[in-house]
Amino acid sequence: QCWRRRGWLKTPGVLELHPAASSIAEPPTRRNAMALKEKKTKMPPTVEKEAPKRKAKRTQSYSGYIFKVLKQVHPKLRISKQAMSVMESCVADTFERLAAEANRLCRLTKKETMTSREVQSAVRLVFPGELSKHAVSEGCKAVMKYNS
């Protein structure tokens, strides 16, 4: 009876389908009635999105490697944060010197590619005497291990 009052059913016993409705007729409910009527477009409520969480920028650190070498040499020793900071700066300074010298050698020989030969020559120039010999032998051992 409420179907007749609302005008959904024009003739008793005959259900008129909306063109957009499916082929199977369902008895009209509030939801179906809303679907049959023209929908007014409403703007969705503005919801402020949370800014995506940024990952912390990772800084280059040699502390893990320094700690491993320390444990190989003296397993019972520990190292303070200040001492680790000093070791970090020492290693970074050494690598910076080696890279600068290898770069200088590349520019002098007019080569664009830095090879192990330039790095080896830079080690011989930067480190004094016996230390350079040990560094070169360790470097050669590392390159052989990497290539095999």
Layout of helices and strands:
Elements: H1 2-6, H2 30-36, H3 63-73, H4 81-108, H5 116-126, H6 129-147
Pfam family, one: Histone
Protein name: Core Histone H2A/H2B/H3 domain-containing protein
Family: Belongs to the histone H2B family.
Characterization of this structure:
The chain has 148 residues and is mainly alpha-helical. It has two domains: 1-37, no CATH class; 63-147, Histone, subunit A, CATH 1.10.20. 55% of the residues lie in helices and 0% in strands. The chain is built from six helices and no strands. Helix 4 (81-108) packs across helix 5 (116-126). The radius of gyration is 39 Å and the shape is elongated.
From the structure above, extract its key features.
single chain; 148 residues; mainly alpha; Histone, subunit A; 6 helices; elongated
How would you concisely characterize the structure shown here?
By secondary structure, this protein is an all-alpha fold. The chain has helices spanning 2-6, 30-36, 63-73, 81-108, 116-126, 129-147. It holds the Pfam family Histone.
Biggest sheet character? none
Range of helix content: 40-55%
**Whole-angstrom Rg:** 39 Å
CATH topology of the largest domain: the name is Histone, subunit A
User: What is the count of DSSP helices, taking H or I runs of 4+ residues?
Assistant: 6
Number of discrete domains: 2
Identify the overall geometry. elongated
Distance between the termini: 88 Å
Mean pLDDT: 81
Report the order of strands and helices.
HHHHHH
In the CATH hierarchy, what is the superfamily of the largest domain? Histone, subunit A
**Beta-strand proportion:** under 5%
- Which structural category fits the helices and strands? mainly alpha
